[in-house]
């Protein structure tokens, strides 16, 4: 009788051990693409876990701000950051039978509208280009840079916005690689939405440099919808070979902004280079930024890195920024 009871006890222990092994959960990591994010960023998150029985595993996601946009039950999800800077948490609970384990991760949201280091294969997300070849060069910039080659006159590489109101400021590191003719240009531009069916409005403002000669100009362009005509107005121009005549692949930092008073401001390598109030003097004009980015002349090649965009009153000063 004792032998029978002993065998039953052994069997019970074996069954218990088997069930325990089958229901084992060990979260190895909870991963995100990046450590700091912009307001309203869309961030992929995913969990890696070891489980005893992969036929009976479930995933439950949570966050303390923003929202998770994918259905529950999957090992991955997408977190949309809130529209406010701060430190938040995303977590995932992995369940396997009767066992479960939860892992949390911090999500730091900055007060930037947008940032890109162009260091991942996702550098082209959210961007549009016209007559522009876009590539990635791991050997340029801080840890890689986007390479832009214009295939026609006025090639464009820009990111669209949902009509962001001013103040608006953007800053980028860039290096000219090729600029074969005197007429070749590189420009940083802000484009504006047509509001309330306006028949005449300011379509864009640009700071344009001519890398072969060192010339520069600051302009805005008006669009007459009825006539179908665009008119460029020069706010300032000059020649500055020390700053704008290019040295191949040498990086500089430029920032273009419209402040709350509708002044157009340009900083270059940490110094205010140009400021003009012409846009503020145009009666009845509203400035909602619909797109911002680069314009390039045909056959011009540049590299771009560390792009910042702000809509909170920050005016970029073309100085190194830390995230």
TrEMBL record:
Keywords: Signal. Residues 1-17 form the signal peptide. It comes from the Bacteria. This is PKD domain-containing protein. The lineage of its organism: Bacteria, Pseudomonadati, Bacteroidota, Bacteroidia, Bacteroidales.
């Amino acid at each position: 009788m004792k032998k029978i009871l002993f065998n039953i006890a052994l069997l019970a222990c074996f069954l218990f051990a088997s069930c325990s092994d089958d229901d084992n959960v060990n979260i190895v990591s909870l991963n995100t693409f990046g450590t700091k994010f912009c307001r309203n960023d869309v961030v992929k998150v995913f969990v890696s876990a070891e489980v005893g029985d992969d036929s009976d595993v479930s995933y439950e996601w949570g966050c303390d701000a923003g929202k998770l946009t994918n259905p529950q039950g999957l090992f991955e999800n997408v977190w949309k950051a809130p529209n406010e800077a701060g430190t938040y948490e995303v977590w995932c609970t992995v369940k396997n039978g009767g066992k479960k384990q939860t892992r949390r991760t911090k999500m730091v949201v900055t007060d930037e509208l947008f940032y890109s280091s162009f260091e991942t294969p996702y550098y082209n997300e959210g961007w549009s280009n016209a007559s522009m070849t876009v590539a990635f060069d791991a050997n340029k910039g801080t840890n890689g840079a986007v390479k832009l080659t214009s295939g026609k006159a006025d090639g464009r590489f820009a990111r669209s916005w949902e009509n962001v109101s001013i103040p608006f400021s953007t800053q980028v590191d860039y290096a000219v690689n090729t600029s074969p003719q005197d007429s070749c240009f590189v420009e940083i531009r802000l484009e504006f939405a047509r509001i309330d069916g306006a028949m005449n409005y300011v379509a864009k403002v640009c700071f344009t440099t001519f890398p072969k000669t060192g010339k520069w100009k600051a302009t805005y362009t008006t669009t007459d919808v009825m006539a179908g005509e665009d008119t460029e107005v020069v706010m300032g121009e000059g020649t500055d070979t020390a700053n704008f005549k290019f040295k191949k692949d040498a990086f500089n930092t430029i920032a273009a902004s419209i402040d709350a008073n509708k002044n157009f401001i340009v900083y270059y390598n940490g110094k205010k280079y140009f400021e003009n109030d012409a846009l503020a003097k145009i009666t009845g004009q509203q400035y909602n930024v619909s797109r911002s980015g680069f314009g390039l002349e045909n056959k011009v090649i540049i590299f771009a890195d560390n792009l910042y965009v702000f809509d909170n009153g920050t005016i970029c000063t073309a100085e190194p920024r830390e995230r």
